[in-house]
């Protein structure tokens, strides 16, 4: 039997029954404390997570940062690994995390882990896939998730050093182009809310450059071009979502409400 690490793993979820099973299965042997905080799933996410050994807690959605901070507080260990419900830890990353703890306390209080997208039709990230490097493995007494409802990041205390792991998380973020655009559209609502709450004003000229500029950012800068036509389409979705963020912000500034229905 494999001995679990002194590590909690937490996941926030909403209607992820088609993806969260692979997420939990990949890390079941790493930890004896897997926490799933669910915000009202109706597709069996909670039941599936519980059947795989996760401790499931229900909580209404308050935004990304507040939900992840709540999840941190439910964890039993001081070391924690955060995963999204569409992310999978491959065997090489699980082995690297084990090696990190093999000699006792890891040398750094926080570690950045690469996150590389796996597009439909792929089984692992393209070798040239763009990779983000956020802190995902950290000590809770040296860093916490930002309370921002839209900015998904760990804020470390001054002086906390950050290491970097070599293997990367596999991010199965795109179910379909339509689902991706729906998700990005909802996120642009939350971003417009956040801009308004913070009193930030984006200049009007940005309306005219946001879409083409962000298409180039995704297609060229984030190397969506390596996925051919599908990469072109996902880069367009990203650009549209960034345009919508500014457009909704502008609409509110001139007196239109432009607010989403629902919660």
Automatic annotation (TrEMBL):
It comes from the Bacteria. Belongs to the glycosyltransferase 2 family. WaaE/KdtX subfamily. The keyword Transferase applies. PANTHER family: GLYCOSYLTRANSFERASE (PTHR43630:SF2), POLY-BETA-1,6-N-ACETYL-D-GLUCOSAMINE SYNTHASE (PTHR43630). This is Glycosyl transferase. Residues 8-152 form the Glycosyltransferase 2-like domain. Keywords: Transferase. It holds the Pfam family Glycos_transf_2. InterPro entries: Glyco_trans_2-like, Nucleotide-diphossugar_trans. One of its GO terms (molecular function) is transferase activity.
């Amino acid at each position: 039997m494999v001995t679990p690490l002194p590590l909690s793993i937490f996941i926030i979820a909403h209607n992820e029954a088609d993806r969260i099973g692979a997420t939990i299965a990949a890390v079941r042997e790493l930890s004896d404390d897997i926490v799933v905080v669910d915000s009202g799933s109706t597709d069996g996410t909670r039941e599936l997570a519980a059947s795989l050994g996760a401790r499931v807690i229900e909580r209404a959605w308050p935004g990304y940062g507040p939900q992840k901070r709540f999840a941190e507080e439910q964890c039993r260990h001081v070391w924690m690994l955060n995963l999204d419900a569409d992310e999978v830890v491959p065997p090489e990353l699980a082995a690297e995390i084990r090696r990190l703890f093999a000699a006792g306390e890891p040398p750094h209080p926080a570690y950045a882990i690469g996150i590389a997208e796996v597009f439909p039709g792929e089984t692992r990230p393209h070798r040239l896939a763009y990779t983000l490097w956020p802190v995902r493995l950290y000590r809770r007494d040296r860093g916490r998730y930002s309370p921002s409802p839209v900015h998904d990041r760990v804020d470390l205390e001054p002086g906390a050093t950050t290491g970097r792991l070599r293997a990367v998380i596999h991010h199965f973020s795109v179910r379909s182009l339509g689902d991706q655009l729906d998700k990005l559209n909802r996120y642009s609502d939350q971003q417009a809310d956040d801009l308004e709450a913070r009193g930030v004003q984006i200049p009007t000229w940005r309306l005219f450059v946001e879409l083409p500029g962000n298409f180039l950012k995704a297609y060229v800068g984030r190397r969506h071009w390596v996925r051919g036509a599908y990469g072109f389409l996902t880069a367009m979705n990203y650009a549209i979502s960034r345009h919508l963020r500014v457009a909704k912000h502008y609409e509110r500034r001139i007196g239109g409400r432009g607010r989403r229905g629902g919660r």
